[in-house]
């Protein structure tokens, strides 16, 4: 059951799409929508190496970046509140100051789903970390997560990347059991495996999806997942990629898989992640 959705109002090119997806899901589930902004002074005021005698200019530049970020935040909040108001969605704003990852993770604890953009977090037209913070918060355990691209597209079909691992199984089960979307046509795909082994995995996964009312089709791809996952998603006509994100090491750390990292950095369609 989805009753509280968190949207990262990051001031990036993906933010309008994140708002649109969040509003659509909030209407579907009669859920409350929270928009979170984060001002991180340490990131914003870090202008790089300062030459001798350049401290005053560096300080001025840092303050200018803070002002620009504040303006972008107000623009994002205005977009969010208008979209929620037009749709009749209950909403609230969470204004945070501090470390971006820590603040997002703190708010995530009290929400059922988090929606972010694929191309950066809390950049506000000033910072350009090329999605590194997105990878960091996923590695820290943020889940379930919907990461969306710049162009909003309604989600009407999905592709599940499946290899039989507990990681992949948890992502598939969360996709079905959380009821975030109504059952939709879903292709379950196995990559780079022996025919007999992958056939069994595909049959079992398809049967699981069908037990949850998803119309399932099966596909075996000979290439490795990192090389073929996005191309396969396009060939399936899927609007959403479902996959596991991070696995825990013996030392208790979570590492983002190469395929998940590649998909997050290159996908032009939404990704649902769980781990």
Structural commentary:
- The protein is of the alpha/beta class and 275 residues long.
- The chain has two domains: 4-148, Rossmann fold, CATH 3.40.50.620; 158-270, HUPs (Rossmann fold), CATH 3.40.50.620.
- Helix content is 44%, strand content 22%.
- It is built from nine helices and twelve strands.
- It has helices spanning 15-29, 41-45, 55-87, 100-108, 132-139, 166-177, 195-211, 225-236, 258-266, and strands at residues 4-8, 32-39, 91-97, 113-117, 145-148, 158-161, 186-191, 216-221, 240-244, 246-248, 254-256, 271-274.
- A ten-stranded mixed sheet has the order 3-2-1-4-5-12-9-6-7-8, sandwiched between helices. Strands 10-11 form a two-stranded antiparallel sheet.
- β6 (158-161), α6 (166-177) and β7 form a beta-alpha-beta unit.
- The radius of gyration is 20 Å and the shape is globular.
- The protein starts with a strand and ends with a strand.
**Main sheet overview:** 10 strands, mixed
Write the CATH fold name of the largest domain: Rossmann fold
- Uncertain residue segments: 248-255
By CATH, the architecture of the largest domain is named: 3-Layer(aba) Sandwich
The helix fraction, in percent, is 40-55%
User: Can you tell me the CATH superfamily of the largest domain?
Assistant: HUPs
Indicate the overall shape.
globular
Query: In CATH's first tier, which class of the largest domain applies?
Result: Alpha Beta
Q: What integer is the average pLDDT?
A: 89
Termini Cα gap: 18 Å
What class, by secondary structure content?
A: alpha/beta
Strand content: 15-25%
Write down the secondary-structure element order.
EHEHHEHEHEEHEHEHEEEHE
Gyration radius (Cα, Å) is 20 Å
